[in-house]
Amino acid sequence: MSDDGINWVLVNASPDILVQIRATPALQPARAVRDTGIAAVLLMDAQIDHVTGLLMLRERGTPLPLYATAEVLADLSQALPLTRVLGHYCGVEPHTLAIDGQPFSIAPLRDTTFLPVPLSSKAPPYSSHRNDPHPGDNIGLMLHDSASGARVFYAPGLGQMTDAVEAAMRQADVLLVDGTCWSDDEMITLGLSKKTAHMMGHLPQSGPGGMIEVLARMPARRKILIHINNSNPILREDSPERTELATHGIEVAFDGMDITL
Amino acid sequence: MSDDGINWVLVNASPDILVQIRATPALQPARAVRDTGIAAVLLMDAQIDHVTGLLMLRERGTPLPLYATAEVLADLSQALPLTRVLGHYCGVEPHTLAIDGQPFSIAPLRDTTFLPVPLSSKAPPYSSHRNDPHPGDNIGLMLHDSASGARVFYAPGLGQMTDAVEAAMRQADVLLVDGTCWSDDEMITLGLSKKTAHMMGHLPQSGPGGMIEVLARMPARRKILIHINNSNPILREDSPERTELATHGIEVAFDGMDITL
């Protein structure tokens, strides 16, 4: 996210962050050698696919501003201690996100406020909270752009709807939400896992109470699925499932997707 | 490395391993969903750029055979506990490499033996051995292919020559060795670090006692620099430094380089 197209806040640090930076000229302001436009990183949870890229940002010259809940920062200093490891390279400047309903801002983004919304999902398999869920293990994020007035709700993990999530989603102009699995038993049917989507902390798209039903009652002008598992048939543009999404006005995110509010 | 082109031993797990697998059809035998041809991983040290990719191999169905010295396995269970984290996914089947001069083999490679050679280099910045070097923090590897009789010496980190390294390099038909820096003060001159190549555990190419001088006395039929830092001018094909390497018969490795013994 960026106000000015130069300084960016990265949400979740994917393992392929270096590939993403190379593919995204806007993230290469080249003000110095080894410069990137990443001014800060904000984490939704401590899942491996959302945090491993932090190790790839270690060559910066100053501590990396890192925004996450106390629960996520604890996982990243203990079970998978990336913040301690980064202490031997650039270092981390941690900012603990409170989940008390107060919005916060991240320098240098002047026009954006962020509101964490606790989610019912799952802590990572390696976390001590895996079978002992705490509020703050997973958050969604409500973004408010004061320049345009637009609101975005972002949630790559979303295990079940709650009143708070329902309320946040109803306010959003743009929804970027969990698209992991089409059906609850998808991973089992394909022999990839013994777990349902729900057991992994994800709301499947199809079926009663699924994401398609949830999105149908939302007034957002854009409804976009993100965080799509490679088992999900919606990745195939000619699939009936993709067609079904289209009839509901639901988009499927792609690498390099750019959203202007 | 592979004997049969189907089962491979991966040496060091780079953070971009998924990109490498996608770019390398030989690593995609597709015997099952989410299959790769990676039968085992062998680590030279515990540097972040050599181990982070282990996290990306976590979706396999069976424990990952992992070959490394006791010192490297200790770093990966403590300071950067990737093996412990992987225990919550596929798990790891650790094989401790002794550095007592005995060769070992790795199933299913039948024609290859491996001999670890302790190197004078550096443990990673995050390691408790960073300022207290132990034999086994870094190894080079002598490979012997019994089918062709050829020997390869591989060492992405190599801080200074020792009698053991000199002897191994003299026996090798192919050398794949540390190409990190052209000059000892390269990182300082470019403002990227306050450390010389030697301080980081790497032998620069140029200058007295440098890698060009070392390689000049070796009978190997191919001399290839690997592990090249993005500050190194040899990455530019039209640089005078690259021309100087060519006059010494020294090659520069590239992504996707394939070597048949």
TrEMBL record, chains A, B:
The lineage of its organism: Bacteria, Pseudomonadati, Pseudomonadota, Betaproteobacteria, Burkholderiales. Pathway: Cofactor biosynthesis; pyrroloquinoline quinone biosynthesis. It holds the Pfam family Lactamase_B_2. May be involved in the transport of PQQ or its precursor to the periplasm. InterPro entries: Metallo-B-lactamas, PQQ_synth_PqqB, RibonucZ/Hydroxyglut_hydro. Residues 7-228 form the Metallo-beta-lactamase domain. This is Coenzyme PQQ synthesis protein B. Keywords: PQQ biosynthesis, Transport. HAMAP family: PQQ_syn_PqqB. The keyword Transport applies. It comes from the Bacteria. Belongs to the PqqB family. SUPFAM superfamilies: Metallo-hydrolase/oxidoreductase. One of its GO terms (biological process) is pyrroloquinoline quinone biosynthetic process. It comes from Massilia aurea.
